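Recap slide: histidine kinase, sequence and predicted structure.
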Amino acid sequence: MVPLTASRTLCGVGISEAGAGRLWAAVRRQGVLLSEALAVPETGEVPLARSSRAWVRLLPHVLGFAAAAALLPTGVVVLLNDYGLPGGLAGPLGAASAAPLLLAAARPLAAWYIVFCANVLTALALLVWADSLGDQAWPWPPPAIIGYLLLCLPLALRRPRRTTIAVWLVTVVAAVLLGLLSPGRSPGSNVLFVVLSGVVLLLGGAVRERSEAQHTTEVERARRTLLEERARIARELHDVVAHHMSVITVQADSAPYRIEGVPEAARAEFSAIAGTARQSLAEMRRLLGVLRSESSGGDPQLAPQPGLGELDALVESAVRAGVAARLTVSGVGGEHGELPQAVTLSAYRIVQEALANVVRHAPGAEAAVTVAVDADRGALRVEIVNGPASAPARPLEAHGTGHGLIGMRERTRLVGGTLDTGRTADGGFRVAAVLPLDGTTPGETA
């Protein structure tokens, strides 16, 4: 036998008691979520607010002020002259429908509450106090429709999708209820109000979601770029550290044979040092080998890492690419002796990235690019200054050299130095790095 279950009819369709209960619970849950969406404080920001230009960030506020200044007197005049509403009502209602546009850029939801209530009260006032509506649009006067649509755009740009849906549903319900109060009038104003508000909310929401997706993509791209640059630096330092560890191993192994009369205990100590160095070198190669294989397909890089001695060739390649570059090196050698390889490698890469950026972002610089390298007071100072751009030039390298300022900052931080970048007085750009020569890194003491 088939068990009997209680059922009821909903809009002509049979539905079980359990199904009706689940449907009602879902409707209530969505209603609660929509009501909460109308009560949550402002969260998002207008996409223009992320711009680096101050005038672009101020543009939404300027447009809101212009809209309020235009619609406030227009709305009051239309209510007085076209609809015949008494001045004691036309002034406050017209102001309440337009003045909140001043808050559209900063508090669109709060402005929507005021404008929506003012529009509903205006429709009721026109129905009760107006002398004769005649062929005038009702329940929404044209200035009210324009102001409402202008407010829907920043609302959709600032608020999540659930809030815009709740706003549109409230708009539809208000339009339907007001239409029922005067069924004999044409629904044209209502239909226009509902359709256009829905379209504006939809378009604004699409722009907001696209902007958020683009912002998320940019953040992920910046994070990936930073990780790639750190991996590249780790691969290069692998060669530097491997060289020094190999020297330690060779010196420790050969010490008993190079030095006569070494005690047995010293021989054992040298042997332990060599063993520890070999073990550390093997572990480091296993750890960083994957970084090398990801970038070069597993082929070892046999060329030595560049240093200050290769700066001349680097600047010459920039000159051949059409950049008027000039190199000055001072203080290298002498009392400082041989500089740490990690420092000279970082200095070379900083100059390389700076020259590449000159070609990419400031082609045809009017003034010559000056590259100054100076070892003084326990630090290696690197400064690159270029003039303003005027004409395009061909790329310096076919495959690029890295990730610009990100790579410079990471290499400077690696050796415990500081990096300063900014515009010059004539519109050029300056990069200045100070790299300590004592081998300390942030958080360490010499």
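The longest strand covers residues 369-376.
The chain is about 60% helix and 10% strand.
(End of recap.)
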